Amino acid sequence: EMASEYTAAYDNVGVHELMLRDGPRMRAYTAALCPETVRGKVVLDVGCGTGVLSLLAARAGARHVYAVEAAAGVAAMATEIVRANGLEAVVTVIVGEIERVAVPEQVDLVVSEWMGFYLVHESMLKSVLFARDHLMKPGGLLLPNRAQLWCSLADLASFHQEHIEFWRSVLGFDFSPVMKHAQLEAAASPASMVLSVPQDELVAERPALVADLDLAAVSPADLDYIWRRCAFTLRRDATVRGLVLWFDVFFGTESGALHTSPAHEATHWKQTVVHFPLDACPQAQRGTALSFDVAIEADGKDPRLYNISVCASASSDADGDAQICAEEEEEEHGMPGHEPSCDCMQCTVVRAFLKDKATNQ
C-alpha cells in the first residue's frame, strides 16, 4: 500500500513540472548524457518519469534506451512523449517497478534522478542499486556515480525572526511563552524542514561531510543507517539554531556535478533543516568548537522515509541537542501539490517552488 501511494504521487503533472523547471538539475543531466558518454550504448533509465533523461540519451546516440517507470499514469505520458518525438524505435517505456519488470538485455549505462531531500529521502537509490547489480553489464557506468551529503550549522536568522520572534510581542502584549512551542512545531513541520537557507546564515568555517557514497560499491544495507560525528568551528559569534543538510552528486568527473548547497543556484531540493529546541540553541563566540553526532536511519514502518537525529557530542565547547523525524504526513489524496490544505513535505515544496518560478518569470 505504501509503495502504491508513493508511485501514484508521481502521476501528478505538477511534480514533473517542478523537476523539469529545475535549471541546475536539467543542466547537469544534459551535460552528463553527452554523445561521448552515451553513443552506441544500451541505457537504462530508472524511474524515468516523463522520460526526459531517456530522450536526452537517445539524442546523444544511445543504441537503445529502456525507460522504466512504476507510476502507470506518467509512464503512459512518457510513451506518448516518445512517440511525439519520433523516438519509439530507440526508446522503450516499461511500466513497473525495476525490481519486478523484465528488461530484454543487459545494459551498458544506468541513469537515474533518484535523489531526495537530504539525499536519501524516498530511498529510491536502492532501486538504482538493484539495477546496477542485476541489469548492468560488468564494468558498466552509473550516472551519477558518486554522491556526497554535507551539513553545516546555521543561525537561521531570517526564519527565526519571521516565525519565532514574531511571538515575543503581539499588540504590545508579551506572547513569548508561545515561542518555544513555535520552535517545536517548526522542528516537526515539513514546511519548516525544507528551506532555502541564505549562505550568510551558515556560521561554521566549513561544512562537514556526513556521507561519501561511491555508487559503484555502496550496498543497500549501507543506506539503512548513516552516522558521522561532525566537527565545526564557528566563523563568527552566533546563536546556533539548527543544522542544515544538502548534497552533491557527480557524473564521472569533479566538474560534472549537481550541487544543492546554499552557495549554489537554488534547486527544488532547497536544503533540509534540523531545528534545535529554543532552550538548547548554543550561543557561542567565533572560534568555538562544536561537535554533533548526525544519524540518518531508515524508518521501521515506511522504508522510504528516514529519521534524522542531531545530538551534541561530548567534545563540544557548548551543549545542544535536537531530534527530528523527517517524515511526510499521510497523504489521503496521493497527489502532492494539488491539495492546498496538505502540509506534507512534497506538497509544500512543489507549491513553493512553482510559485517562486511563476513570480520570477
How would you characterize this protein structure?
Residues 319-340 have low confidence and may be disordered. Strands 6, 9, 10, 13, 14 and 15 form a six-stranded antiparallel sheet that branches. The protein has a five-stranded parallel sheet with strand order 3-2-1-4-5, with helices on both faces. It is of the alpha+beta class and 361 residues long. It is built from eleven helices and 19 strands.
Would you spell out the secondary-structure blueprint of this structure?
Layout lengths: L1 H8 L3 H8 L2 H10 L2 H4 L3 E5 L5 H8 L4 E6 L2 H13 L6 E5 L11 E5 L13 H10 L1 E8 L2 E9 L2 H8 L4 E2 L2 E2 L4 H10 L1 H4 E2 L12 E7 L10 E9 L4 E2 L2 E9 L6 E3 L11 E5 L7 E2 L4 E10 L7 E7 L8 E4 L20 H16 L1
Parallel strand pairs: 1-2, 1-4, 2-3, 4-5
Antiparallel strand pairs: 6-10, 6-13, 7-8, 9-15, 11-17, 12-16, 13-14, 13-15, 17-18, 18-19
Q: What are the key terms here?
A:
361 residues; alpha+beta; 6-stranded antiparallel beta sheet; 5-stranded parallel beta sheet; 19 strands
Instruction: Give the topology string: H per helix, E per strand.
Output: HHHHEHEHEEHEEHEEHHEEEEEEEEEEEH
Give me the secondary-structure category: alpha+beta
**First-to-last CA distance:** 39 Å
Q: Biggest sheet, in brief? A: 6 strands, antiparallel
Number of strands: 19
- Number of helical segments with 4 or more residues: 11
Q: If you compute it from the alpha carbons, what radius of gyration comes out, rounded to the nearest whole angstrom? A: 21 Å
Name the average pLDDT: 87
The amount of beta strand, in percent, is 25-35%
Overall outline: elongated
The multimeric state of the shown protein is single chain
Helix content: 25-40%
The low-confidence parts are: 319-340
